Amino acid sequence: MSEPVRVVVADDQALVRSGFTMILAASGIDVVGEAGDGEAALAAVRRLRPDVVLMDIRMPGMDGLEATRRLLATGATTTAGEPTRVIILTTFDLDEYVYAALRAGASGFLLKDVTPDHLVHAVRLVRDGDALLAPSITRRLIDRFSSGAGVREDHGALPTLTAREREVLVLLARGMSNAELAAALQLGEATVKTHVARILAKLQLRDRVQAVIFAYESGLVSPGA
């Protein structure tokens, strides 16, 4: 039997923290700590080493974006030595928050009107190393680059990818799952997972969300192409 997912919930509203805790606990997810601001969230992560942090954006003092940047910059790890991952959970569906959170290294971004089942699924998915965005947020991220708001950067790491890895990255940026990638490229899922892992390692990216951002920022993928 696998170990339960260990979560820290960071939100400045006690009622919200209690609600998330009850939803997660009912599904066998272990909420090991709570925090009411960014500083307390960082302290809880250092002390408890959770698998996932549910991080509100707007909190007094240090906000969730800065806490996320600091948490991920320090290389926080779980009790099993895996990277601690962050899901941003907020009522504010605003471009600047979405993009800043993803650039900070968040592995997920959900709105607070998410259903209980979707929240539980997101926590488990992110703990397992995947990434998740609300569909409305994915559309807004793509729209950002369509409008020219995304800055194209000169990524010197791009030439390190093989032709096959570039092909995988392009399809990944289109939102394909590993199963869909395998079918499109006529490869086994294990092979696809190996390609994705190598792409992340070569480009020094945390997860698929950052890989999608990289693909657009580098100009490898253009919206609507």
What does this structure look like?
It is a single chain. The longest helix has 15 residues, at 189-203. This protein has 10 helices and 6 strands; from the N terminus they run E-H-E-H-E-H-E-H-E-H-E-H-H-H-H-H. The protein has 2 domains: 6-143, Response regulator (Rossmann fold), CATH 3.40.50; 158-217, Orthogonal Bundle (Arc Repressor Mutant, subunit A). It is globular and about 50 Å long. Helix 3 runs parallel beside helix 4 (95-104) and helix 8 packs across helix 9. The mean pLDDT is 83. The protein has a 6-stranded parallel beta sheet with strand order 2-1-3-4-5-6, sandwiched between helices. By secondary structure, the chain is an alpha/beta fold. 50% of the residues lie in helices and 12% in strands. It has helices at 14-26, 38-48, 64-73, 95-104, 116-127, 135-146, 163-173, 178-185, 189-203, 208-217, and strands spanning 6-10, 30-35, 52-55, 85-90, 108-111, 132-133.
Secondary structure topology:
Elements: E1 6-10, H1 14-26, E2 30-35, H2 38-48, E3 52-55, H3 64-73, E4 85-90, H4 95-104, E5 108-111, H5 116-127, E6 132-133, H6 135-146, H7 163-173, H8 178-185, H9 189-203, H10 208-217
Parallel strand pairs: 1-2, 1-3, 3-4, 4-5, 5-6
The low-confidence parts are: none
Query: What characteristic shape results from the CA principal axes?
Result: globular
CATH fold call of the largest domain = Rossmann fold
Strand pairing plus helix content: what structural class?
alpha/beta
Number of contiguous helices = 10
CA(first)-CA(last) distance:
45 Å
The major pleated sheet works out as: 6 strands, parallel
Multimeric status of the protein: single chain
CATH superfamily of the largest domain: Response regulator
Q: Which class of the largest domain in CATH terms?
A: Alpha Beta
Total count of strands: 6
Strand content: 5-15%
Helix content: 40-55%
Radius of gyration: 17 Å
How do the helices and strands follow one another from N- to C-terminus?
Answer: EHEHEHEHEHEHHHHH
Overall pLDDT score: 83
Modified residues (4-aspartylphosphate): 56
Domain Response regulatory: 6-127
Keywords: DNA-binding, Phosphoprotein, Transcription, Transcription regulation
Organism: Catellatospora methionotrophica
